[in-house]
Amino acid sequence: MKLNEANLNALPAGINVPNYDRKALTPGIVHIGTGNFHRAHMAVYLDDLFGMGLDHDWAILGAGVREGDEKMRRLLETQDYLSSVTERAPDSTSTRIIGAMPGFVPVDPTNAPLIAAMSDAAIRIVSLTVTEGGYFIDPKTGTFSPEHPAIQRDAANPDAPETVFGAIIAALKARRAAGLQPFTVMSCDNVPHNGHVTRDAVIGLARLSDAELAEWIGTSVAFPSSMVDRITPATGPHEIQMIAGLGLEDAAPVTCEPFRQWVIEDNFPAGRPQLEKVGVTFTEAVDAYETMKIRILNGGHAILAYPAGLRDIHFVHEAMQDDQIRAFLDKVEQTEILPIVPPVPDTDLSAYKQLILERCANSAVADTIRRLCLDGSNRQPKFIVPSIRDVVAKGGDATGLILLSALWCRYCFGTSETGAEIAPNDPSWEQLTLVAARAKDDPSVWLAMREVYGDLGENAAVVARFDQLLRAVWADGSQAVIARYLDGTL
Ligand code: NAD
Predict the structure, then answer these.
(1) DSSP per position, 269-338
(2) Could you report the per-residue pLDDT of 317-326, keeping only the tens digit for each?
């Protein structure tokens, strides 16, 4: 049966539908980047809140600045902006319909409809999931890049911006002129210190065309940081077929794991929904949660992904069924990462690590090793290199993490250990394969990539260990080297 408002009460049994009157919702949030993750995460929390009869003036208006977002808008329009979200555990599947988004702003190259929507007094939060690459960060400096061509174009045309940040600035300017309080800007992307990064992008771009406006934004607009977590795979034929099997016709279904977490810095001068009533943590310690997640979850993904990629393993849960890879992940986490993760309020780090192992083993989510191996050149410097640095600074033994760096280097050579070709899987793939080929004879060139390793390539002990481990991986294969790591003879 087609998903839409009229059919809500006639959907197949077992599919939960909103118990509130969607027509009575009014938007308080514009969300830019209405991809799968937003619909599996923020929209679900708000749906829970509306289901409690609370805060119906905080509904979400979907939005976006790319052609793909217009495609999504058209798909959702055919079903009254309803989305199905299916939680998949190995032994159970549950589907619910999310009604928290009553509308979607038309996507236009000038972004005029988006700017108008954000200029409306009723909108008090603008939230974002525009991917890690959407923040115009210069990989060499790790900070906002004013030289990026899209940023330069927006600086020259502030009234018809093409970027998210240009549109936000134009709307803030319009609100200021109308005497309206600014909205709060909340990033929900997987970017360390996402509030600061967003603030730097908005103010950095504003400065290029209107220094005075930039100054006002700096003193008047809040950019709370948040930590978000829920594994949400892309929707492919597998997912569409699974939903069709339930008797539901959804043009853009979302599937995800049962687990979800959202930790937010409580800095919302224009007000916010009472998300603490539906399990969201508001805290001053977002950074601590974020470090925990980035080091243990995202770092853990890398630790299992590269050995699995070298063995041609397709799914994440299949990697977890490999006793050696599972033991490798567990040992590196337990002995190298956990000791350097600062304490997190009300959280037992060992239990958190155990939960990560269970989440990775969830066969129903069907997350892929290739997705986890993607974009190592951006991910290693955030998820692995800082842990090596911290272990070394504390005088600890970072053998497992350095071995993982060697396995990533071996992966970037471009073939698995069976000789199968690895298709390009990084924006810098071409350069990485060249350096990985040279590193086979001279491992030090890998750590000399300053944009990834910073000054770690100047640490003689780390360089010597990496040299030994990469040569061993090439000579004996990853399985033999990981076995020696596990029995303590490496
Ligand atoms: P998706 O591909 O379904 O959606 C991506 C969205 O970002 C789209 O709306 C797209 O138009 C927009 N976008 C991409 N690049 C952009 C740019 N340069 N400027 C403006 N908009 C841009 O992906 P998703 O699964 O929804 O994930 C989006 C982000 O959510 C991730 O990059 C990550 O930061 C965060 N996240 C995802 C997961 C997950 O498991 N999928 C988990 C935690 C956090």
Answers:
(1) TT----GGGGTPEE-S-HHHHHHHIIIIIIHHHHHHHHHHHHTT--BHHHHHTSHHHHHHHHHHIIIIIG
(2) 999 999 999 9
